[in-house]
Each structure stands twice: as C-alpha cells, then as structure tokens.
UniProtKB/TrEMBL annotation:
Protein name (record): Uncharacterized protein
Keyword match Signal: yes
Biological process (GO), any one: regulation of DNA-templated transcription
UniProt source species: Myripristis murdjan (pinecone soldierfish)
Keywords, comma-separated and alphabetical: Signal
The keyword Signal appears for this protein: yes
InterPro entries cross-referenced by the UniProt entry: Perm1
Coiled-coil stretches: none
GO cellular component: cytoplasm; nucleus
Lineage summary: Eukaryota, Metazoa, Chordata, Craniata, Vertebrata
Length: 61
C-alpha cells in the first residue's frame, strides 16, 4: 500500500509540467500520497512492535 503511494507520488512529480499553472495540484497530490504512506508505515511499525513485545512477554513467562 505505502509503496504504491510513494510510487504514485514520484510518478506525479515526474510527469507534472512546471510551466503549467496547475502544477501545484500535482505537487499537492504527491505530498498527500507521501504523507499517507508515512502515516501508514508509522502505524504498521507501532503494531508490529507491540506484537513483538507481547510475544516476548509470553515466552519469558
């Protein structure tokens, strides 16, 4: 999911024409996609860390 968002953001920025007045829309879309990917990764890392911590607790008891 997040890799798709990052790839999409990269593609939007590469294909945007900076001479066109609507280039800000492409930049905004790319930034929103990148921020969504970052939020997803942070959430995923927290969930994985919590699951790993629970697994350590169960094995040490």
């Amino acid at each position: 999911m997040c890799l798709v968002c990052i790839a999409f953001a990269s593609w939007v920025l590469k294909t945007a024409n900076p001479q066109v007045g609507d280039a800000w829309k492409a930049v905004l879309l790319a930034n929103v996609s990148a921020l969504s990917a970052i939020r997803y990764l942070r959430k995923y890392v927290r969930v994985e860390a919590a699951a790993g911590e629970r697994a350590l607790r169960h094995t040490s008891v």
